[in-house]
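INFO  loader      accepted 1 record
INFO  loader      residues=710
INFO  predictor   begin
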Amino acid sequence: MGRMVKWRFGVILDAGSSGTRLHIYKWVDPSNVRKAAGTDNLQSLPELKTEKKWTKKIHPGVSTFGATPDRIGPDHLKKLFDHALKIVPKDAVSDTPIFLLATAGMRLLPDSQRSKLLAEMCSYARSQTNFLIPDCNSNFQVIPGSTEGLYGWVAANYLLGGFDAPKEHNHEKDHHTYGFLDMGGASAQIAFAPNATEAERHANDLTLLRLRTLDGAPAEYRVFVTTWLEYGVNEARRRYVEALQKETGQDDPEELRDPCLPKGLRTTTKGDILLPGSKTVAGKTPSLLGTGNFQECLKKTYPLLDKDAPCEDEPCLLHGIHVPAIDFDVNHFVGVSEYWHTTHEVFEMAHKDKAYDFQTYQKRVEEFCTKDWKVLQEGIKKHQWGKKVDESKAIEVCFKSSWLISVLHDGIGIPRVGIEKGPDSSHNGTKEVLESAKNKGFTDSFQAVDKIADTEVSWTLGKMVIYASSQVPSKDDGLPVGFGRNVPGLPDNFEYGALVQTATSTNITGPASKGWHDTLFDGDAPRRIPGFLLFVLIICVAGLLLCGRERRQRVYSKLGLGSTRRPGSPKRRGLFGGKMPFFGSSSSHGAYERVLEEGVPGYEFELGPVEGDEENSHSDSSTGSGYRAGRASGLATPHIHDSGSQDFYEHSNGSQGVGLGIMGRSGLTGRTESRDKLVGMSGPAAVGRRSRRGSPTRLKSSAMKPLVED
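INFO  predictor   done
INFO  writer      dumping tokens
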């Protein structure tokens, strides 16, 4: 029988604009790993695992409950919480943190609605589950695009092995991490670690990220992250149509000729197909007539990059936003979301055994987008471009492809592999594509991905990697895990990886932030005292105090509270032990003082272990196998199989020891399992080995050729 191990779990909800997706991750308790693993294996990050069935997504987005926050719990969150509670073992729930991190949709809500909705979601989670939520502000929040980009950067590098196996991912110039590119409907993000020269030159523009390996040692990275608002595919399309209308010079043109639509297709400005004979929608908006000219489409999308915008802080890439110079010799980018959907789901990137090739990709897009719409409709019925391509995708794909090509190559400056070599690059990119396409993996300047070793490249994984890392005890009681401004020590905007109990609640007021008086008198508190009984009690006490000493003694006597002792018998204390004024003898004050003098001062009291910790220390091993010790978590560049093989793209609390109870002034106990310092947050901004089925395995590079150069 294998050795039992204790698993830690983490639950995270990605609350996007169109829906909420639940992710569950688990990892071995760091104390178990440190006892079993060798020295080499301790120099890696905790190994997180997940399974496809642990993920659940529901619609619509949480922002749709802005006007009805009281319905968000039963109508939306309940399904997700029920699913999570089926996965997380019962004895582990109280030690399992739950995060709800909202993105685009919630950012658009008015401040008042956003605050109420977040508070309601946290309150519902606390009342309906026993998940670990020490502070609503840190567990339930809206994150900025830059934080989302940083989490994505962590996830990509974690899965690729850039953190744990730097020697196997040497991109020259002592650089071993990958850049990260993400694009949704509303915005786009970029995150990368500049080379040493640029990192020193633009130190004030970087984010300091501090992780912790299993041996307790810190691992610091300096990353540049930024977001381009209105540069997502949907917002870019909206700006594109506005530009077409402006070109006509007319206030209300009836028709706009659109080279990014298939030839002969007529749609509304929102992409709805118009039947023959229809000109406009209710005569108010212009129609779009496709001309199917992809080269012209590229020319018209280029101005949307706004490359000529004033740049106050050189250098800039798009819209005058500062970005340090990118060294494509060492900065290799992976792109997710639209970078994957638009390049692979429609055009399949040719046999799944080649990395992104600008020349091949553009040729395929042009062949598709110059076809007559009726020809495309016939091909769609026959699934000529795969079962995922329907009419709506066919309508959108030409503009999306043009936009991605413009952003990647004209905007960010990704070399056009197959046509040109990168700036200051010494390797022949064209020769790489022609001679070693099957083995390229991520050695190119850019590669679109969806999954790595069967694990989705999701920013939620990055968030949980940071949290799991924070649960490893520091070997020298060093600085906490998290990220913030690139300054020594703890920056004022440091975002802690561990859960902390803030002194005050600024944005959200949940049950844990209430004092004893709130708990007693708040109408929603489960332990509140009904107002009528409280009123009667106050009247009785006031009357008793006003009736005089003799009348009070008669009342005590009738109630059996008076002094009826016999001579020589021990003296009994009055009501409340004689320590309350008006209810005992005058000598009670001396007793009260004596207790303080003889007792232990308040600051010397030590709280015992929280109930249930001992029970939770028992292992929860997964069915099938135990933890395999001695396994390095760092893996490397994935090997792309030939066309006949399976495509690799297919889609808590872990500190050592017992949790401590922290008693705040409010009288409530907050729990933390991290040994990080409890400081209040000021907050923001190929094929590998797997120790277990369903593990987010990072890829092994020993079978790969050396890297030579989102």
